[in-house]
Amino acid sequence: HRDLFENASDLIQSVALDGQFLFVNRAWKETLGYTDEEITRLNAFEVIHPDSRAHCMKIFQDLMAGQIVGRLETQFLTKDGRTIVVEGSTSCRFHDGKPVATRGIFRDITQRKETEQELQRAKATADAANRAKSDFLANMSHEIRTPMNGIIGMSELALDTPLNREQRNYITAVKNSGESLLRLINDILDFSKIEAGKLDLHPDNFSLRDGLGESLKTIGFRAHEKGLELALHIKPDVPDELVGDLGRLRQVVINLVGNAIKFTERGEVTVTVVTEETEPAAVPKGQCRLHLCVRDTGIGIPREKQGMIFESFTQADGTITRKYGRADASKFRRRVSAVGKYDSNWR
Fold first, then answer.
1. Pairwise CA distance, residues 159 & 124, whole Å
2. Bridge partners of 86?
3. β-bridge mates for residue 107, sequence order
4. Which of 8, 116, 249, 256 is the most exposed, fewest CB within 10 Å of its CB?
5. Strand 98-108 to strand 83-95: parallel, antiparallel, or no bridges (unpaired)?
6. Closest by alpha carbon to 196, among 134, 139, 288?
């Protein structure tokens, strides 16, 4: 047993009722830095940090009274004045019903505690940064809403004036795009819900065919400029008058179609809507389940890369950013000038 105690990596001690050490193992001496001769003149409470002495004295008295003490965490002082944090357990040895000594086994957890404190500090810093980011986004979003509401309002006023077909299409596209951007800004105002993976839905009555048709019109000029055919196919059995969040639906469709146009050089981009076949009991009465599919004749995604597209800010191939990057101002002007041609051909 003595050999086991001496070679244990934990700090093992036995202390008499007057605080004198009866036995300490090698790990105890090496950690605290005392020699055998110094230990004979040392009291147990001298190696306990002043901040922990009252707590340890209470535990010592509880042990003498026969109480069982569970896990103990305290601070020791080394010979050179360093503070170490230890955790362990203590017990009391009795003889003829009377306490004669205490025994303790401790483990140095100083490094672990320092790591935990560093993590707590890093978390506090990250939390502060997140709060600052959220405050910034909320303030900026609030400021942006004012001019956006002005754009939408002026677009509505312009639509009430005499316009030719081409002008009305232009202003309608501006109004729809402004409303989409305003919905996104409203989401940013509640950024905490987005980070938590929660987005509120706002169900309302809408026409599926009109809603999707207007959505595709806002990005149709991009397909026309590249010579692509942009088509919307909604099966006849798909109901048109629905209750749901058209804004969320448009966000998803515009995102998918926009990417399809971006990565398609020739051919077509097709949006298809069908009623998904399910067991009658799977869909409550009065509801329907629709399947929307965006197909294109573009470059596609290799099967081994498909899982990556669901990660934030990730592309299957980093080189495509250079080839399919953002358009410069001259290209944007050419796209705007092509919108009129697009409207007469869009299906």
1. 51
2. 74, 108
3. 87
4. 116
5. antiparallel
6. 134
Q: Could you tell me what percent of the chain has a pLDDT over 70?
A: 82
Q: What is the pLDDT of residue 339?
A: 34
User: Which residue, 149, 213, 131, 133, is CA-closest to 186?
Assistant: 149
Q: Output phi, psi for 294, to 5 deg.
A: -110, 115
Cα–Cα distance list, 116 to 77, 83, 282, 320 (Å): 21, 16, 48, 42
Contact between 239 and 207 under an 8 Å Cβ cutoff? The reply is no
The token pair at 277 is: 């076949």
Q: Which two tokens stand for residue 142?
A: 């609030």
Determine the pLDDT at residue 194: 60
Tens digits of residue pLDDT in 270-279: 999 999 876 6
Residue 304 burial (CB count, 10 A): 8
314-339: average pLDDT: 44
- Residue pair 289/276 in contact (Cβ under 8 Å)? The answer is yes
Question: Which pair of tokens denotes residue 41?
Answer: 């003149």
Burial class (CB in 10 A: 0-12, 13-18, 19+), 185: middle
In sequence order, the β-bridge partners of residue 48 are 76
With a cut of 90, say whether residue 147 has pLDDT above it: no
Q: Which residue has the tokens 């899982």?
A: 307
Neighbours of 101 (CB within 10 A): 17
Residues 48-71: pLDDT tens digits? 999 998 988 888 888 888 888 878
Let me know: does 255 contact 216? Beta carbons within 8 Å: no
Q: Which residue has the tokens 């506090």?
A: 124
Q: Residue 62 — φ and ψ, nearest 5°?
A: -65, -40
In the prediction, which pLDDT does 320 show?
A: 54
Sign, CA torsion 38/43/46/52: positive
Two tokens, residue 164: 């030719």
Q: Give the whole-angstrom CA distance, residue 115 versus residue 323.
A: 45
- Neighbouring CB atoms inside 10 A of 265's CB total 11
DSSP β-bridge partners for residue 268: 229
Of 300, 324, 297, 170, nearest in space to 230 by CA: 297
DSSP for residue 316: S
- φ/ψ of 142, rounded to 5, equals -60, -40
